[in-house]
Amino acid sequence: MSVCERFEKNFGQYKNGGLPQAVQTEMAEHVAVCPHCASFTGEISSLRTLLTGQPEFQPRPGFERRLSERLRGTTEVYRVPARRRFSSGWAAAGAGLATGLAVGFFVMLAPHTTDNIAVTSAPPLAAVGVNTTRDSLDSISDTAKSEESLYELDQNSRTVSSGR
Amino acid sequence: MKFVGKSDEELIREFQNGSMEAFDEIVSRYRNPLFSFVYRIIGDPAFSEDLLQETFIRVWNNRDSYREVAKFSTWIYTIAGNLAKSELRRHKIRRWFSLSGSSSHDEEERPLEIADEDADPHRDLERRTIKRRVDEEIIKLPRVFKEVIILRDVQELSYEEISEILKIPLGTVKSRVNRGRLRLQKRLRDLV
Fold first, then answer.
1. In terms of Cα–Cα distance, which of B143, B125, B127, B30 is closest to A49?
2. ipTM entry
3. Topology classification of domain B8-187
4. Under an 8 A CB cutoff, do A12 and B32 touch?
5. Which residues of chain B does A149 touch, with a Cβ-Cβ cutoff of 8 Å?
6. Which one-letter DSSP state was computed for residue A127?
7. Could B181 and A48 be called an inter-chain contact, meaning their C-beta atoms sit closer than 8 Å?
8. CA pair distance A112, A164, nearest whole angstrom
9. What are phi and psi of A79, to 5 degrees?
10. Which of residues 27-66 of A touch B (CB under 8 A)?
11. What residue segments make up the domains of chain B, in order of their start?
12. Contact by Cβ (8 Å): B173, B157
């Protein structure tokens, strides 16, 4: 490996003074007489200036609102990336297919009486503990609250998360 | 104004004690730097916003697990960096992005830049072209070089902090920064 190659490879350490003293001196002496390495040093300095001056980006306007809605668990405005829609679509199709096969299998094996078919039908939501009325009222009262802080409405999640 | 002069660590402490306004301030302080960081790694604005939201949601959900043994900035950059890395690993966006070429850099797809108030309008177009070219080259770098170059040279974090964020030894950070710069220098030779 030539001195120029070693200089380029160890340039970062050389600039930070991180090389052993003897190597540091050798590099300093080399760059003083080598036009290639002197030019390289200038280019890296320019590059750093270029990189430091790169602009900062910002998300689309309304980021805080979208974040707030996502924190509240609302997905109506949040745009689900295509990848998720795709994967959830396949998951739903898979679940549907599995359910269909299971029901078909059960129907084939079971005696064909109307009593048995009635047993397999889904019970009402209230019977399995889903209080749809209360859920609806909760969501209405959530949206009716004022938004002094964008994230204030999610105070409940603190209780939930700290209770884990 | 309420939080002027308060450190990030003071903010997270107030948030841990129940101040939602402190969380607002954290979002306000870190929204753009984190978005810039994630966008330059992922190269896709929509995915970047998704990951940025996820980062803040994790801060929200795990606020009680933050301990002041590390700087808050290290903690939040670690969360964002890990999410970005997982996303790249899972979906190979970088490969897709480089294969799709310049079409992904269309005006519509590029996120909003923070305006440079001192910009000379006559040189604005030239500057924007150069900056865009530099960003394209950063995004094309292999991930291991890209993340250290962004954190060190664009975001100007210390080597020590980068080492903590990426969970790699200090020497590895320095070596990767050097090698990343060498690659960029070769690709941007006409500009430097």
1. B127
2. 0.80
3. Rna Polymerase Sigma Factor; Chain: A (1.10.1740)
4. no
5. 20-21, 24
6. G
7. yes
8. 47
9. -85, 110
10. 40, 43-44, 46-48, 50-60, 63-64, 66
11. 8-187
12. no
Whole-model pTM?
0.65
In terms of CA atoms, which chain B residue is nearest residue A40? B185
Q: Once rounded to an integer, what is the mean pLDDT over residues B165-181? A: 93
Q: Which of B3, B48, B61 to probe the A interface (max A CBs under 10 A)?
A: B61
- Per-residue pLDDT tens digits for B69-111: 889 999 999 999 999 999 888 776 555 545 554 444 455 566 7
pLDDT (0 to 100) of residue B54: 96
- Has residue B8 got a pLDDT over 80? yes
Residues in chain A: 164
Q: What pLDDT was estimated at residue B151?
A: 94
- Judge contact between B55 and B76, C-beta under 8 A: yes
Task: Check B134 against A16: CB less than 8 A apart.
Answer: no
d(CA B101, CA A125): 52
Q: At what angle do helices A63-71 and B45-61 cross, to 10 degrees?
A: 50
Q: How far is A133 from chain B (nearest CA, A)?
A: 28
User: What tens digit of pLDDT does each residue of B105-164 get?
Assistant: 455 566 777 666 555 666 677 778 888 899 999 999 999 999 999 999 998 899 999 999
A4 CB near a chain B CB, below 8 Å? no
Query: Contact at 8 Å (CB) between A37 and A70?
Result: no
**Interchain CB distance below 8 Å, B24 and A162:** no
Query: Which residues in chain B (130-169) have CB-CB distances under 8 A to chain A?
Result: 130-131, 134-135, 138, 149, 153-154, 156
Residue B4 amino acid letter = V
- Of A106-110, A151-155, B1-5, least confident by mean pLDDT is A151-155
Name the residue type at position B163: S
Looking at residue A164, its amino acid is R
**Residue A54 burial by Cβ neighbours in a 10 Å radius (0-12, 13-18, 19+):** buried
Within 8 A by CB and 6+ apart from B48, the residues are A59, B35, B38, B39, B42, B111
